Each structure stands twice: as C-alpha cells, then as structure tokens.
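stuck on whats below:

***
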Amino acid sequence: MQFTRSTRRLRASPLAETYPFPVQFYEHPPTDNISLQDFENFAVERLKLLKSVETIGVSYIKASESYNKKLESELRKLKFPYRVSSGEKLDDYEMRRKDHISHFILRLAYCQSEELRRWFIQQELDVFRFRFNELQDKQQEFLQHNKLEYQTIGEEEKELQKKNLADSGGYGSIKISEWLFYKVYFTDVLELVRARKVFLKDGFVYIPHPEIAVIVLNEFRQRLSKSLALASRALPVVQSDERLQPLLNNLSHAYVGQDYSIQKNVGKISLEQIDGLAAKSYAPCMRQLHKALRDNHHLRHGGRMQYGLFLKGIGLTLDQALQFWKSEFIRGKVDPDKFDKLYSYNIRHSFGKEGKRVDYTPFSCMKIIMSNAPGQGDYHGCPFRHSDLELLKQKLQSYKIPPAGISQILDLVKGMHYQLACQKYFELSHNAEEVGFSLNHPNQYFIESQKLLNGSRDIKKESSQPENQQRNQGSQSTRGTSACVSKPTSQAESADMEGLEELLSDVYTE
C-alpha cells in the first residue's frame, strides 16, 4: 500500500482519538517529538517484549491458556497495551503511544536483512494475534475502523450451505445461525484450508467469525512485510542522521540481559580447573573454542576475542589470562617474545589496560549470532547458527545428547530459534526440565550451570564478593539489566528528536 502525504500524516488529536484500540496496523509513522532517551528506552522495552514472545511461543502451545497467561504477564510487566478496559485512563493511551513509536523504531532496526525481517514479522504477528483476540466483541468495530470489509453471506446462502458449514468445522446449527460467515478466496486462508476447518467451494471458503483472526493476520503480515521492504530501501535516509545511526545499527543484535563485565568470581578459578569446567559448564560455542585451542594451540582473532572475553567474564584475572594464552601459543610453536609483542597487548587491551582503557564486555548470544560470521579455519560463532546441520548433529552425539533431544534441538535450529536450541541443550545436558530463565549469554549459561552443579554455591564454594556498581559503557541499564545499544554523541543526547515526523514519513513512503 502506498501512503500519500495527505493520508499518512495524522492530524493533531487527543491520544484517545489517535489510539482507540490496544491493537493497530501501524499504518502511519509517529509524528511526535521524543527525547533520545525515550527513543532508546522504547526500543529496548519492545525488544525485550519480542524476545519474550519468541521464548513463550516455543515453550507453550500458542493460543493455549498457559500461553495466553504468560504473554499477558509479559505485556503487563513491560507496560504494553493488550486489552480494552472499562474506564480507560490516560496511562492506557500513553502505553498505546509507546507501542506505536517502539514498533516503528524496531522496524528500522529489523529491516536490514531477510533473516531479521522474518524474525520481526513472526514475533509481531504473535503479539497482534493475542491482542486481536482480546478485543472480543470489539473486533468488528476494529475492522470497520481500519476499513477492513469482508464479504458476508446472506441468510439464504447460509441456510443453503448449512450442512456443509456444519460438517466442515464441526459447528452446531445454533452457532451457524448466530455467527457471521465471510466468503473469501481460498489463498487468503491457506492455514484453515490445510487444517480442513472451512467449507471450500468454487475457489472460495466460508469463514465463521471466530476464525476471522486468520484473515486479519494475513492482512497484517502482508502490510508489515511490504513496510519493512520499503524501510530497507530508505535506510540511507536514517543512517545519515547521526543521532539515530549508532542506536539502530546495534538494536538488531542488542543484548537486554545482565551485564557480565562485572566479574563476580575474580580470582576464584584456577587455570587447572578450566578443562573440567569446559566439559561441564561451557555453552557449546565456548566448548568448541576451548577444544580448538587445546587441539591446535592457536585461535584466530575472532576466536580469541570471543573466548578471551568469556574467560574474563567467568573470573580469570589479567595475569591468569596472559599465562593461559601464552602457554597454549608457545605449545603451538609461537616464540615467547613474539607472543609478548603480537598478542599480549590485545589481551591487556580487552581488560582495559591499554589503548582507550575500555573494560570490554563478554559477547552476548545475539552478538555472536549476528556479527562476524566464522570463515574457513575459524572456530568462533554460534554452533547452532553457523554449523551445518549434519555436523551439528554429530557434535551433539559426541556430547552424549539422546536422539530425541537432538531432534528437538535440530527442529529449533531449523526454525531459526538458535538461543532456544542452546537452552534446550542446557536442559538436556543438565537433566533439568524447567530451568526458569531465558538463555541470552554464554556467561549466563556458565553461571546457571554452576548453580545447578554446585547447589547454588559459588565456584570453590566461596561466598560471593559484593558486586561493584555496574559500569554504563554505552549501555542503558534498567532494573539490573542492560541493553548494549551504542549511545549517540553527547551533543545529540540532550536534543529532542526534532524532525522525527519528516524522517519516518520519508522512510515509510515509496
């Protein structure tokens, strides 16, 4: 659909008029001026929501009672709208405004590749489905508001096809008399045709009103898919804005969990423990790197960065790290003087002791998955994302994962749920049915593994040291979590998003 300037600009109106429903098609870009702080906060909170939606969708049967309760809890916790309430307050409309703005921000971040677009569309569809079903008796009003008019059959045709309608969907005659039935072309509802839940005649299917969500979802998917394609072509417009470019570039692989740059177990791990810890408590990505290092006595730069920062995060001191890497590289025929000249600087740099003296953070799952894919001779990356399925299967077999578990993991990988595949590996390798957390970080994997294996005790059974105050290295912290999204320049930080209306209007217009 093309948006002309006369139709895509929203007239100034109260929030209640602009956002009459907790669900929307996001046809018009936001016209507000917001601060850069709100811009980032809105984006991070929606990203948290979509990550939760993905996890819930794999853990529960969609549309089941447990699924709906869990999703409702996440929407309420993150303060996103999901239901029409009696006596709606200003806060309800403010949440709808946040929902509107945050959706368009993430569109810009997730339009950059086909893989990102597919992921974004799927999560947004799941949120839309839940919200639309929550409208209940206001669904027809919502359709009219969005000018979605579907052909309904008359009473005469309904009576004529009554038996066919009842047989196709297993509906009682009373329900058929009460319900509206829509007549649509079969390609618009292939999901229902495939499940044989509708009556098909002459290329048209008869849809009862309770199944109207399928048609509306298809419409939402088509519009969102086209909008993302438009946004991807107009990305240079956004990337030329120095206030937005650093934020949007990192949002697609932003980490929204705990900050593992704080080393809770500094000095509690000895180098002699590492082999045992790798076999028991390393995520597959780090286990793969450790084995490659022990076998080859060398890792390329990508592997050294990924594994070195992980080791730092689990508690290795700088002196231990230098000793660990030097001993391995010397075994690989690297001269000690050459190591000191070529490699020790990078290790000290990662600990914030050289260069800009930035204390670098261990890589999150999303950073490993989305950036710096491994090449020939590399061992970094995510095995679930970057490995051939047959090689991954062989690796899981070598890790003693049972055949049924391997099938579950491979199914998740095929669905591009790489972090959930790793979480399933954690459950299977630790004989844990319900882990009670969403896996987002290799260091989180290590900590949770140690908790299970040691009965919630710290490594070496020592009491944990008080955590230092979290460093905010270009990350927005919220309630003990951090979103690793680059900040704009200090001059832009205090500026409002003047011109956001024109910018987004240009992006979402052909």
In short: The radius of gyration is 26 Å. The first strand starts at residue 181 and ends at 185. The chain is about 55% helix and 5% strand.
